[in-house]
Amino acid sequence: MALSAVLATAGCSASGATPPNGPGGSASAVQLSNCGLPLTVTTAPKRAITLEQNATEIMLSLGLADRMAGTSYQTDPVLPQLRPAYERVPVLAKLYPSREAVRAANPDFVYSTYTSAYAPDAAGPRADLARLGVPAYLSGFACENPADAIPTVSFDGLFGEIRDIATIFGVRERGEKLIREQQDRLDAARGTAATTLPSTTTARGTGPSLLWYYSGTTTPYVAGRGGVPDAISSLLGSRNAFADTAQKWPAGNWEEIAKRNPDVIVLADLTRGGDGDGAQSKIDFLRRNPVTSKLAAVVAGRFITVPGSSMDPSVRSVEAAELVGAGLRGIAR
Questions:
Q1: In angstroms, rounded to a whole number, what is the distance separating the alpha carbons of residues 97 and 92?
Q2: Are residues 125 and 215 in the same domain?
């Protein structure tokens, strides 16, 4: 995601210039186009609200807990290294806070990963917040209008979002440090997976096929084209088994999955407790289902488990790349 920010007093790009207050400092205003809407932040926010865990953990990873007036929608236990900072931030709602709860917190910035957070029965549309003088940021991967969205998730795109938030809060050096750390981990994950099992479903040299199994038993939801799993598969020299499906998370069926016979099954370990959410419940189902029990990956036990939230664009996505890379190398031994 290109930042395309302009520092009003400096007249230059926020992503490539030093603000007038010195290295890493905040400028008097940042202007950018975010998901088709102009967004202007006149001063570095001091009372920000995040509306999902992905946005929360980006903020906390940038050391911005002291600038947060609230958070919401925790889907998994917060990353251990971020837990102390998270516990200092008020939790406004178990899921999305209402408009009234958002306004009562008196925010000067709102940040969401998903469009659903800005629904009328949640925080309300970004345009409405802007009219109240509250700039509202939305991840470029999930814009209200699909034509405005970044069509394919990439780590470069995620790093662009981190740069946006770091620039808005005047902590550009922290942003670049976080990006360097994440890139180093990606490079190491690529190296870890350098020796992987040969593909059993395609010609030699194309790499193993991965089925990214997110949730569901009656109707399995799997990773299609353009999401985090696709980006990780490419990074590790593997193939997403459903990369030819246009949706990022299509509803699949077991007969088609059996036909594609993936080499490895990557399981999302979800903590919400629904049917087929936990990794072990997925494995148990795959082994007892007459169709899937005969899959080569199931017979051989070629499973890799990753936290479900790491399959969405966030600072956790690097962890998924690390786990899958290490898993592939372990299977190949």
A1: 6
A2: no
Question: Which pTM was predicted?
Answer: 0.87
Centre a 10 Å sphere on the Cβ of residue 29 and count the other Cβ atoms it contains.
16
The Cα 145–Cα 161 span in angstroms is 18
Can you give the residue range of the structural domain that contains 158? 6-182
Give the pLDDT score at 198: 54
Provide the 10 A C-beta neighbour count for residue 20. Answer: 13
Q: φ and ψ at 254, to 5 degrees? A: -70, -30
265-304 pLDDT, tens digit each: 999 998 877 777 899 999 999 999 999 999 999 999 999 9
Kindly tell me if the per-residue pLDDT of 3 is higher than 70.
Answer: no
Query: How many Cβ atoms are within 10 Å of 212's Cβ, its own excluded?
Result: 29
User: Where does residue 64 fall: left (phi above 0), alpha (psi -120 to 50 degrees), or beta otherwise?
Assistant: alpha
How far apart are the two ends of the chain, measured CA to CA in Å? 38
Q: Report which of 277, 257, 271, 262 is spatially closest to residue 328, judged by C-alpha positions.
A: 262
CA-wise closest residue to 241 among 218, 221, 264 = 264
Side-chain-side CA neighbours of residue 215 (13 Å): 13
Asked if residue 216 and residue 321 are part of one domain, the reply reads yes
Question: Rounded to 5 degrees, what are φ and ψ at 71?
Answer: -140, 175
Distance CA 81, CA 88 (A): 14
Residue 26 has pLDDT above 70, yes or no: no
Q: What is the mean pLDDT of the chain?
A: 88
Sorted by sequence, the CB contacts under 8 Å of residue 256 that are 6+ apart come out as none
Q: Domain holding 270: CATH number?
A: 3.40.50.1980
